[in-house]
């Protein structure tokens, strides 16, 4: 997921059956990605707009892993992408 908002510290997801996992990025845009053979890549197109200079977008991944916890899903760390110089 990619969002314009950051949750710092992260939102504890234990109540959803994901103990030890946190949500660090707002879920403004969700992208379903199904890698083949365990790996893959995804392109994020960013328009060349001066208004984006200095702006931040936040991203985080979620993977479905049966048996890892009661929900069967685990989250990645959060990523802060700053546009421009």
What descriptors fit this protein?
about 80 residues, mainly beta, three-stranded antiparallel sheet, two-stranded antiparallel ribbon, about 30% strand
Walk me through the topology.
Blueprint: E1 2-3, E2 6-12, E3 22-25, E4 56-59, E5 62-64, E6 73-75, E7 79-82
Antiparallel strand pairs: 1-4, 2-3, 4-7, 5-6
Explain how this protein is built.
The chain is mainly beta. It contains no helices and 7 strands. The protein is flat. The model has no long low-confidence stretch (mean pLDDT 90).
Pick out the low-confidence regions: none
Order of helices and strands: EEEEEEE
Number of helices: 0
Question: Total strand count, please?
Answer: 7
Produce a short descriptive summary.
The protein is mainly beta and 85 residues long. 0% of the residues lie in helices and 32% in strands. It is built from no helices and 7 strands.
């Amino acid at each position: 997921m990619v969002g314009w908002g950051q949750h710092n510290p992260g939102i504890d997801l234990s109540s959803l059956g994901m103990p030890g996992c946190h949500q660090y990025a707002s879920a403004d845009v969700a992208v379903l990605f199904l890698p083949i053979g365990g790996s893959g890549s995804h392109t994020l197109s960013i328009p060349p707009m001066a208004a984006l200079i200095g702006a931040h977008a936040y991203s985080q991944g979620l993977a479905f892993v049966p048996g890892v916890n009661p929900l069967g899903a685990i989250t990645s760390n959060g990523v802060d992408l700053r546009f421009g110089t």
